[in-house]
Amino acid sequence: MKNGRWIVCLLGMLWGLCQAGVPAQAASSPLDSVVEISVDAATYQQESPWNTDMQQRIGTGFIINVKGEKRILTAAHLVQNAVYVAVRSNRSSKSVDAEVEQVSNEVDLAVLKLKDQGFFQHRDALALGDLPKPAQKVTLYGYPVGGESLSITEGIVSRIEYQPYSYSGLTFQAIQVDAAVNAGNSGSPALVDGKVVGMVFELMPGTQNISYLVPAPRIRQLLEDLQDGKLDGVPELWLDYQFILNPAQKNYHRLTPQQTGILVNNLCAHTDAAMVLNKGDVITAVDGQPVTEDGFVETNGKQYSNFQNRIDLHQVDDIVSLDILSNGSSVKRNLRLNKSSQTAKVPESKPRYFIFGGFVFLASHSAPACEAVGDDETGEPEDGKDSVSLVQVLPTSSGNIGFHDAAPMLISTVNGQTFDTFDDFYRLVKQGTEKNIVLEDSGGYQVVINRHLAETEQDDLLKEYNISKPQSDDLEGDD
Question: How many CB atoms lie within 10 A of CB 458?
């Protein structure tokens, strides 16, 4: 019996050693779920939008589940203006073509769909974890420069703060880590206990071991947003506010010394907030979580985050509950988050341009601004408009003398008329009948174009600068 027990124990030990020695190639291993992404992207200079160059980029992505189907998550800036995208698994020489399916420029996230779904066989999606804690150890997987196989680095969470995302210029929660991150790590997942707690989206130039992660809750908000197949974005309150720290100011707004909150300074038109809140209201709690005097709410145990993050993690058209002190009275109000954050910082994938008499005009979509609330406020969001800039003046024989240094110039009116779209601007300039075309910026600076000279010199100018088309494709049907 003793010998029999010894044999059983020995077999058990050997089995345990065999199990421990299984290489990390199982279906749930990050080694199988993290991929290298190769991108060929079209780029252009704003001053010469008719010319397109190609740029090659290398980055990282990882498998996620979207509506029960496997996709690749990566950084939006990596696939910006992508013409061709391919993914490659660790230690494989074979690439699989991919296409950009969804992009959230605001939070620098993109979802890729593979053209060959067979790639996902025996490869699992990585599970999303929770927000990590400061000083917690994280492991990063990616494909930075310096080699072709998967790189694994470790670090700790240095801090979790609400800060600008450089790609969009908008402010959201981000995780700072001290793990080694280099070019090629964009899109790398950071794991704790086998779950993704964040994704690398930028590093701080000129520093060592300071990089930032999009937190897992932000990624989860994106994936939940995509459940209906449409990306609505990140909701925003659309108001101006300030923290109430001064005792006299607290007393003025009828707060007790113990009460804390944020003061509503200004409301933006075309939002539900303009219908529900009033200037001078004090928001004391969001979804039942008290707002501290410096604008924080409790999120995870003793962790705190900016109260705006509580709004960000909702979906557009969700209802948020606000505790309000209005004229000294405590009330509860439900607010529909019907307007999302939007950025105009990211260049458009295909330039919209127009050249007339050597003046080069470039359009961009202008994100909605905060407008004053009017008497006929309905609370319904409005779309952004196009802005048009004079980006370069190509010297000609006579038509634009004196304006060679006028660019860059953001144009407000054409012969005194405003415009909402690039099509409107094009028609005012190209199809007008005025002898002179007078362009002005918001400060009244003028550029005057002689229509006849511009039209007669146009063909020679295009030949001289080797410009094949005087306008982008979107304007070709407007002649």
Answer: 17
| Strand (E) or helix (H) holding 5 | helix 2-20
Q: Round to whole Å and give the CA distance between 99 and 114.
A: 6
**Do 277 and 324 form a contact (C-beta atoms < 8 A)?**
yes
d(CA 434, CA 191): 64
Question: For residue 430, what are its two tokens?
Answer: 């190209």
Percent of residues in the chain assigned helix, strand, coil, to nearest 5 = 20, 40, 40
**Cis amide leading into 290 (omega within 30):** no
Taking the C-alpha atoms of residue 186 and residue 142, their distance in angstroms, rounded to an integer, is 8
Catalytic-role residue among 29, 33, 77, 305: 77
Question: Do the bridges between strand 289-290 and strand 296-300 make them parallel or antiparallel, or are there none, so unpaired?
Answer: unpaired
- Structure tokens, 108: 């620098």
CB 384 within 8 A of CB 420: no
Active site residue 166: no
Tens of pLDDT, residues 352-400: 999 999 999 999 988 888 888 888 888 888 877 899 999 999 987 678 8
Q: To 5 degrees, how large is the angle CA 154–CA 160–CA 164?
A: 110
2: confidence class by pLDDT, cuts 50, 70, 90: very low
Residue 382, pLDDT score: 80
pTM: 0.86
Distance, CA of 182 to CA of 143 (rounded, Å)? 9
Residue 174 vs residues 79, 107, 292, 301: alpha-carbon distances, Å: 21, 10, 20, 18
In this structure, is the dihedral angle defined by the CA atoms of residues 241, 244, 250 and 254, taken in order, positive or negative? positive
- If you average pLDDT over every residue of the chain, what do you get? 89
Give, in degrees to the nearest 5, the angle at Cα 106 between 102 and 107. Answer: 80
Contact 109, 77 (CB under 8 A): no
Catalytic residue from among 33, 104, 168, 186: 186
Instruction: Summarize pLDDT for 233-283 with one digit per residue, the tens.
Output: 999 999 999 999 899 999 999 999 888 999 999 999 999 999 999 999 999
User: Is 77 an annotated catalytic residue?
Assistant: yes
Q: 299 and 309 in contact (C-beta within 8 Å)?
A: yes
Cα–Cα dist 390/371, whole Å: 25
- Other C-beta atoms within 10 Å of 1: how many? 5
Kindly tell me the sign of the dihedral angle through the C-alpha atoms of 190, 196, 198, 202: positive
Helix and strand numbers (H, E) in the chain are: 8, 27
